[in-house]
Amino acid sequence: SLTNPGGIGTVHSVPRLSKGQAAIIGVGALDYPAEFQGASEKIIAQNAISKVLTLTSTYDHRVIQGAGSGEFLKLVHQLLLGAQNFYDEIFESLRIPYEPVRWSPDLQVDPADEINKVARIQQLIHSYRVRGHLMADTDPLEYVQRKHPDLDVLTYGLTLWDLDRQWPTGGFGGKPMLKFRDILGVLRDAYCRTTGIEYMHIQEPEERRWFQDQLEHAYSKPSREEQLR
Q1: Per the structure, how many domains does the chain have?
Q2: pLDDT for res 111
Q3: Are residues 125 and 165 in the same domain?
């Protein structure tokens, strides 16, 4: 069975077996490691520090061997990193139209690499403007999890560790700096929702800029009054 002492803030517990149980799994609280809980959001993002949780397994050795318990905990660890299409199946069951961002080691090495990443983010923005319509949900009859290699963050050497880091945008989204997750959100809302938009073939820069100004802003849900009109 599963017990969740993390719900009341317990980080680590060793649950006791009840009569007739073969194993019980304790799930601790999900939080940053204790040594980083006083760090600022910026430092946590820069150093690729993620929240962690502790799983413990109490088992009846007459039914389950220690190696079996260890294999189970290892499997859970692998699934949480995305093994066996774990997140793909979750996204599909929830009908989320995009692929999950894959786990991979952080690629940030030195300040010079940060400049390189800014250029790659600009490349990604351009790719969404050119090919974002290929991931738009234009089929009202069937759910399809949409993807395109030119719109995959890994294609540009970017990782999930970059999502909460602030990056210069050159005015994209109406702000000089944005988190990478916010940049992705604006791009997907602008080009990958239920309308496919192509305009980069237009020759006049001012006309292209007009489309970008109209499209590239954070999505805001219409008010109740607007929805009832």
Answers
A1: 2
A2: 57
A3: yes
**66-115: pLDDT as tens digits:** 888 889 889 999 999 999 999 999 988 888 878 888 899 987 656 556 77
Catalytic residue among 61, 77, 133, 148: 61
Domain shared by 211 and 124, yes or no? yes
| 120 plus 160 within the same structural domain | yes
Residue 4: CA count within 13 A, CB half-sphere? 3
Asked whether 56 and 26 are in contact (CB, 8 A), the reply is: yes
Alpha-carbon distances, residue 98 vs 87, 189, 195, 211 (angstroms): 11, 12, 15, 23
Residues 73 and 129 in one domain: no
Q: In terms of pTM, does the model score above 0.85?
A: no
Q: Are residues 156 and 206 in the same domain?
A: yes
**Per-residue pLDDT, 110:** 61
**Domain interval for residue 211:** 111-220
Tokens at 48, concatenated:
């690729």
Domain annotation covers residue 101: no
Domain boundary among 57, 80, 103: 80
Tokens representing 72 are 């189970």
- Read off the tokens for 100: 């999950």
Distance from C-alpha of 211 to C-alpha of 195, rounded to nearest angstrom: 14
Residue 217 designated active-site: no
**Those residues with Cβ within 8 angstroms of residue 196's Cβ, 6 or more apart along the chain or in another chain:** 132, 133, 134, 136, 138
Residue numbers of the chain with a pLDDT score lower than 50:
none
